[in-house]
Amino acid sequence: MSATKTLILNKEQIHQKSKRIAYQIIEDNFDETDIVLVGIADRGYVFAQRLQKLLQEIAPQINIELMRVTIDKLKRQLDASADQDLTIAQDKVIVLVDDVLNSGRTLAYGLGLFLNIPLKKMRTAVLIDRSHHSFPIFSDYYGLKLSTILKEHVEVEFEEHDGVDSDAAYLA
């Protein structure tokens, strides 16, 4: 990994892209009464919390539920848990949320949790889509599609999770 970091999104840009994603979620689900945001721990959950606040401001008539999913990303098989009973998503729209989509493995594992739950539909939302998919997982809602080389790394920093002064996304 390179020692230099290149800023790709600052705090204002992250907020703008988050707001645009929230509007896209509403447009795609305008006739729904419930949406479940499933944030992948840790930064995906922080991003999902932010989307929940934006969605509640934009469409207060829609009940926006939040669920945290923890996935062991280093294992080659599904090893995941949720902070709530998965049946709260039954017959509802769920949006699986993460900060960066790289290979698609993390989102595929997140999807795996819900295979036995009947859903209305499942969508994915990411702040940055790197387009290096190894799995047939794609972002339905994204803030930025970024073409990178495999050696490069995208790092998202959120104030409330990383203890930094401001949100930012870097290419390293």
Strands, count: 9
Strand order of the largest sheet: 4-3-2-5-6-7
Provide the residue-averaged pLDDT: 91
State which percent range the strand residues make up. 25-35%
Count of individual helical segments: 4
CATH topology call: Rossmann fold
Please bin the fraction of helical residues. Answer: 25-40%
Uncertain segments are none
Q: What is the second-level CATH architecture?
A: 3-Layer(aba) Sandwich
CATH class call: Alpha Beta
| Structural classification | alpha/beta
Order of helices and strands: EHEHEEEHEEEHE
What is the number of independent domains? 1
* N-C termini distance: 6 Å
- Cα gyration radius (Å): 15 Å
Protein name: Phosphoribosyltransferase
Keywords: Glycosyltransferase, Transferase
Organism: Sphingobacterium corticibacter
GO molecular function: glycosyltransferase activity
Write up this protein.
By secondary structure, this protein is an alpha/beta fold. The chain has a single domain, classed as Rossmann fold, CATH 3.40.50. Helix content is 27%, strand content 31%. The protein has four helices and nine strands, in the order βαβαβββαβββαβ. The strands form two sheets. A six-stranded mixed β-sheet has the order 4-3-2-5-6-7, with helices on both faces. InterPro entries: PRTase-like, PRTase_dom, PyrR_bifunctional. Keywords: Glycosyltransferase, Transferase. It holds the Pfam family Pribosyltran.
Give keywords:
3-stranded antiparallel beta sheet, Rossmann fold, 6-stranded mixed beta sheet, alpha/beta, 172 residues
